[in-house]
Amino acid sequence: xxxxxxxxxxxxxxxxxxxxxxxxxxxxxxxxxxxxxxxxxxxxxxxxxxxxxxxxxxxxxxxxxxxxxxxxxxxxxxxxxxxxxxxxxxxxxxxxxxxxxxxxxxxxxxxxxxxxxxxxxxxxxxxxxxxxxxxxxxxxxxxxxxxxxxxxxxxxxxxxxxxxxxxxxxxxxxxxxxxxxxxxxxxxxxxxxxxxxxxxxxxxxxxxxxxxxxxxxxxxxxxxxxxxxxxxxxxxxxxxxxxxxxxxxxxxxxxxxxxxxxxxxxxxxxxxxxxxxxxxxxxxxxxxxxxxxxxxxxxxxxxxxxxxxxxxxxxxxxxxxxxxxxxxxxxxxxxxxxxxxxxxxxxxxxxxxxxxxxxxxxxxxxxxxxxxxxxxxxxxxxxxxxxxxxxxxxxxxxxxxxxxxxxxxxxxxxxxxxxxxxxxxxxxxxxxxxxxxxxxxxxxxxxxxxxxxxx
Length: 455
Fold this sequence. Notes:
- This protein has helices at 12-42, 47-53, 56-73, 83-99, 103-113, 122-152, 158-187, 193-214, 225-228, 234-242, 246-277, 288-292, 295-330, 332-352, 357-374, 377-383, 391-419, 434-452, and strands at 421-424, 427-430.
- It is mainly α.
- A two-stranded antiparallel ribbon has the order 1-2.
- The chain is globular, with a radius of gyration of 22 Å.
């Protein structure tokens, strides 16, 4: 059981050391969000296949995080309960980040080396496997990271700690997204996609290592976790989770609809930028020679997508701490509702003015307000109901309501887009803006549910 008695208040330096690892985690996650679309499309993935590949996130989130959360609650190590998972997840994910953008080259290498004929989809299969490994390892690190807050941070500073995580998410995402387009704009150098993934791998490993070295977590070698309380099954943990308070169910439902809305943007925005804002047709339906003529526009659109994500996360970074301060003054509930409604407006604007790069970028900026709140306040709302010693299990179960909604987006929303074909002669495209309208409706539902939560 976690010993929260006598925890010293965190200083600003403590909070920065604590949040740096999450900055590296988000750096890797942001690169995976922005660049997985062009990598997989160039390997032959259409919108529906791309959505199915994204199922890696929700499935690993629903399985891995609850399992790792429970394991970390009962881990005995001189390094503590959480840190082995933080560092282990970062190291394995970094290897997969290097392999992913080279999947096609790896398939060709094996075909030439062993003089065998491999199916055309071999590169895509390798890429899909790497995405599953990346997502699984990010989940291995993420659940224990959130659970580390009650372990080392005094209760009265939990909201502030989550706000620093929002700050790290914003800053890590800004740097990850902005590096390539800024180098292109300032130096005229176009950073390759594999180079960007190597950069993400290094950032994840180095940042997480720093946090593990600077944040003191008590050794659990001499702590009797198994004898103090009987171990429970997953379903018993679920039952106990919802028995914490009637408000927990409302928070989970709010989180479910919130993350449908969030993933409608995160999964499809790069494709939206490439195919809707910049008008690049479906490259999987073209010959390699015909597709080559659109590659420069695809690169330009990918850089634009990176800039939009940088703007989105810069706003998150700027207001992450103010969000925590405002929540402390006016309450988590009120601030979160306003933030969600700002994102609803942003989604509608982007969906309506879909071919205007400037308006779409402004919509992404407005969405950053909601993102800063989503990264912090739901966890702050839930943390007041967590019993000491169950932090990992609770955060793992709570992640189901983040990962689960992604299944809806990866399957049904991806299927809707795949069926919404735009014919332009022999060229095909899709109504990617539909994802924003669906997302806006779900975020509005989330705001209404938040209103029903008792403060």
